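Hey,

Quick one before I head out. I ran the complex with flavin-adenine dinucleotide overnight. Inputs first:
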Amino acid sequence: MQIKKTAVVWFTNNLRIEDNKPLYEACAKYENVIGVYCFNKSDFNKTQFGFKKIEKFRAKFLLETVKDLSKNLLKLNISLFTFFSLPEKIIPQFCCQHNADVLFFQNEFTQEELNTIKAITQKLPKKTAVNSYYDQFLFRPESIPFQINDIPEIFTNFRKEIEKNAKVYNTLSITSKADSNFIKVDTPIPTLKDLGFQDFELNTNTAFPFQGGETNAYKRLNHYFFISRKLSFYKKTRNGLLGIDYSSKFSPWLANGSLSVRTIYWQVKKYEQEHGKNQSTYWMIFELIWRDYFKFLSLKHQNNLFKLTGIKQLNYNWKRDAHLIRSWIDGKTSNQFVNANMIELKLTGWMSNRGRQNVASFFAKDLLLDWRIGAAYFESLLIDFDVHSNYGNWQYVSGVGNDPRNRKFNVQLQSQRYDATGKYRSTWLQHNLF
Ligand SMILES: Cc1cc2nc3c(=O)[nH]c(=O)nc-3n(C[C@H](O)[C@H](O)[C@H](O)COP(=O)(O)OP(=O)(O)OC[C@H]3O[C@@H](n4cnc5c(N)ncnc54)[C@H](O)[C@@H]3O)c2cc1C
């Protein structure tokens, strides 16, 4: 039964209307629903290693995403108020101003986000209840066959158990609210300049020429699955380096939640019914389980995700040589394959998975540099930065995470194997003018 009360939905990394549990629950249970998003000012400051948390590529993508969310919410008669401030300041004030009975949001579990959530809940008006959900997983934590502390340290053991004994929930669709739910929005979405960046054009060679937002996420999914049917070849092409279609490119939309991981899962199932199942269609789900796995490891190991000794608590003799770090960032190391990848990242905010593994291995295992600095640089530049996947993968490659074999990439051999003709290197090395 619906009660005549007001819910505020605070959007964070769940910038979509489809399959959004907090939004769905708010709409199902409350008559008045209001959306709010706060561009967090502290994300645009420099952190301990000297990089901004968010550089221009992710900032642009985020702005496009929030604009699209606002349009999509409007179709449901829901207003989205946006601010450029600190969420812990804005959200309690907003709830107070709108006399909110409840605040809905997506649960986060890394320290800074937990601090923000704590600060918000402490300042909320007495009458405002809190409802939050883990909504970023393929397999919700309450549905997996492990206690969080017993999550296996080896991916294969996790995957096999999950594949047998966990279920993926159906996606949720929201019905429109009444016209009267919409209230005039008097908080304009900030511009790129407001966030501290100049406007810029995308590099013509970028492998990620897409815009942010749920609408574009669906276009991309439709293209990759049903129009081009590239999904049927994904396993063969996923180690590619050039062009838009060697892999799905879903990660930036997944990272800010403008695409639900469960939507992808069910679209793979639909595709398999229509066009046949093969190793490639399975491999897409396999990779999405990797994504979940890093989130579960982060839930289990908490702040060890960010510590130099990693989740394995291993001590190595890491260096912090500023000259070596700069040469890696600028694509001026002794290895041209590493250099090409680093230039691609600097000019586009994108790098392939193969590239990421190589440059991270080179940073940590050849140059022996403090892996957290490399991870912080990735955090700043990547359009698809996701805290769990980034820090988890960096640990994995650096030998302090969950790689049972602690492998080192031979970057020379890797470039011969994956860039045999040198086309990838020449595409990006021509820009090496810094
Ligand atoms: C050092 C390092 C840092 C990384 N940092 C990030 C990051 O910040 N954000 C991020 O989303 N991914 C990160 N990855 C994982 C991976 O490189 C990207 O997810 C992938 O390249 C995104 O391209 P895609 O969407 O076309 O992937 P596809 O190959 O099409 O895969 C589909 C989806 O599966 C998931 N996935 C694939 N590979 C991985 C993986 N190794 N770990 C976790 N999930 C995976 C992603 O959600 C991806 O969108 C990192 C990998 C390394 C080695």
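The mean pLDDT is 96.

Talk tomorrow,
K.
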